[in-house]
Amino acid sequence: MHPVETILQTTMRELKNIVDVNTIVGSPIYGEGGAVVIPVSKVCLGFFAGGGDFPTQAVAKKGAPDFDANGYPFLGASVVGVSISPKAFLYMQGKEVTLLHADCDNTLDRLVQMIPTALTEIRDAIENVRAQRQSPPEDEP
What we know:
Blueprint: H1 3-18, H2 21-24, E1 29-30, E2 36-53, E3 74-93, E4 96-101, H3 107-134
Antiparallel strand pairs: 1-2, 2-3, 3-4
C-alpha cells in the first residue's frame, strides 16, 4: 500500500471518532416534569491530504524503509479542521414541541421563530369563536 493511502485511511478513521451523529443531533437532556431538550449543531469540516516522492542528493538503496521503489523518500501529511456551532434546541414538554433557535441575527429570524406560536394562538381564537357561536344563548330574566 502506498504511504498516501495509509495517511488517508488513518485520517478517515480518526474523523469517524471525532464527528458522529451525536455531534450533530445531540443526546437528549431530561428535565423536570418530563421536559426533554435535544441540541442541534452545525458541523463544518475541512480536510486536506497529500504527499509526494522527493529526490535527494544521495539516493538511498531501493527497498529501504521510508523510500519508494525508485529510492526516493516519501513526504506526506494530512490536516483536518472541524468547527461545531450550536444552531437550535428542540424542546419537548408533553405534546408540545418547540424549536428554540440559538442564533437570531436579525428581526426576520425572530419573526420566523414566532410564526408557530402565532399560528397556535390564531387557531385557538378561531376555535373559541366557533364554540361561542354554537353554544345556545342564555335566557335573560
